[in-house]
Design brief:
The chain is mostly helical. 68% of the residues lie in helices and 0% in strands. The protein has a domain of 29 residues. The chain has one helix and no strands. The radius of gyration is 25 Å and the shape is rod-shaped.
Length: 65
């Protein structure tokens, strides 16, 4: 394969794969963070609606559910 200064036949591909893995790790992290923000906002909105008297029993929601 390659010497100490030569990446060899698969060296450049390996570097590319490492960059792809880092990219997808960052993408997953950002998506998880964004999903957390959405979940927190949904829960907060649900509490606000309930506090405002908008809480309706499940069987009375009709098509709104």
């Amino acid at each position: 394969m390659g010497g100490s200064n030569d990446p060899g036949a698969f060296g450049y591909g390996y570097g590319h794969i490492k960059k792809e893995i880092a990219y997808f790790d960052e993408l997953v992290h950002r998506l998880e963070l964004a999903l957390g923000y959405v979940t927190d906002a949904d829960e907060s909105t649900s509490r606000d609606i309930g506090d405002a008297g908008g809480s309706v029993r499940s069987e009375e929601k009709g098509f709104a559910e």
